[in-house]
């Protein structure tokens, strides 16, 4: 049991505690949980608001277009005299961009992560990693013009018959754009692997490359997979690059040399004013947006599951 301080009466101690109760530190401790709760509450309410907005507008679209046509057809001509709403033409364009981007980004991103984690000196890592992450801060519209005016002419000189608007050029540039995401997250996961594991493998005669490939990467697999899945979600949701360099021709085919239209590019086209408010074409962007929302949600849930499934704790 606490004894009263020598020289203070009980009444003086009660008055002193009352003053401490209303001190700045005490008020700050009481207010901070409320502010933190408010921040989390705003995020949750925003997510619910987005879902409800999509749901209400989606209902108006499916009042006029059967679900079986939206999900069972491959022809997407919403602005024609005989409109068609088969969303798979847009999904095919989106997947082409995502696949090409991942083919570019995964090997380059992982190679960068391995170098930064296993080979670079502390000074080199301090310089190179921020420079690499600057790439992630370049506006996507700049990447779009880079794809159209620089990458596409180079590809046309190498691939005869390549159209000015195609899937290959924006796919490559989207891959370049997401390299920092894969490299940075994977490098963080690799750096978290304890040094004693590396020392043990080196002590048994393994080379540095063998340690990186056979020891460090499997130990950091959860972080690496999470980086790849998050980067793929970013590639699926990319808008400006594919709008500028991909064209606007929704076709259900997988030739990367032809023009395409992705889900996000279609939303931009309609949102710019190609269809009036309240028309069926206007409501179609909510249907496409809802499908894109589901895609990215599934990808993020998959990333979270993979992270928990392969998490290593030391």
UniProtKB/TrEMBL annotation:
PROSITE patterns: ABC_TM1 (PS50928). InterPro entries: MetI-like (IPR000515), MetI-like_sf (IPR035906), Phosphate_PstC (IPR011864). Residues 91-303 form the ABC transmembrane type-1 domain. It holds the Pfam family BPD_transp_1. This is Phosphate transport system permease protein. Keywords: Cell membrane, Membrane, Phosphate transport, Transmembrane, Transmembrane helix, Transport. One of its GO terms (molecular function) is phosphate transmembrane transporter activity. It is found in: Cell membrane; Membrane. GO terms for cellular component: plasma membrane. The chain crosses the membrane at residues 34-56, 85-110, 131-155, 167-190, 211-232, 283-303. The keyword Hydrolase does not apply. It is a multi-pass membrane protein. It comes from the Bacteria. It comes from Exiguobacterium aurantiacum. Its main location: membrane. Belongs to the binding-protein-dependent transport system permease family. CysTW subfamily. GO terms for biological process: phosphate ion transport. Part of the binding-protein-dependent transport system for phosphate; probably responsible for the translocation of the substrate across the membrane.
């Amino acid at each position: 049991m606490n004894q009263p301080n020598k020289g203070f009466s009980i009444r003086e101690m009660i008055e002193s505690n009352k003053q401490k109760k209303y001190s700045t530190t005490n008020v700050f401790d009481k207010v901070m949980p409320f502010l933190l709760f408010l921040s989390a509450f705003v995020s949750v309410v925003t997510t619910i608001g987005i879902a409800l907005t999509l749901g209400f507008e989606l209902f108006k679209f499916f009042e006029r277009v059967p679900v079986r046509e939206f999900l069972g057809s491959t022809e997407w001509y919403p602005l024609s005299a005989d409109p068609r709403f088969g969303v798979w033409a847009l999904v095919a364009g989106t997947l082409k961009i995502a696949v090409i981007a991942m083919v570019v980004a995964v090997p380059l991103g992982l190679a960068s992560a391995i170098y930064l984690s296993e080979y670079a000196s502390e000074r080199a890592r301090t310089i190179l990693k921020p420079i690499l992450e600057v790439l992630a801060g370049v506006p996507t519209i700049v990447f779009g013009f880079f794809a159209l005016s620089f990458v596409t002419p180079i590809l046309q000189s190498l691939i005869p018959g390549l159209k000015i608007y195609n899937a290959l050029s924006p796919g490559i540039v989207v891959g370049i754009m997401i390299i920092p995401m894969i490299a940075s997250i994977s490098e963080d996961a690799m750096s978290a692997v304890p040094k004693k594991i590396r020392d043990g493998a080196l002590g048994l005669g393994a080379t540095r490359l063998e340690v990186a490939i056979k020891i460090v990467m499997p130990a950091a697999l959860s972080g690496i997979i999470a980086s790849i899945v998050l980067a793929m979600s970013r590639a699926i949701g990319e808008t400006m690059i594919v709008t500028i360099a991909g064209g606007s021709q929704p076709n259900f085919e997988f030739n990367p040399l032809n023009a395409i239209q992705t889900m996000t590019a279609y939303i931009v086209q309609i949102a710019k004013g190609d269809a009036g408010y309240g028309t069926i074409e206007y409501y179609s962007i909510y249907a496409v947006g809802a499908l894109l929302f589901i895609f990215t949600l599934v990808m993020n849930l998959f990333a979270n599951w993979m992270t928990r499934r392969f998490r290593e704790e030391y």
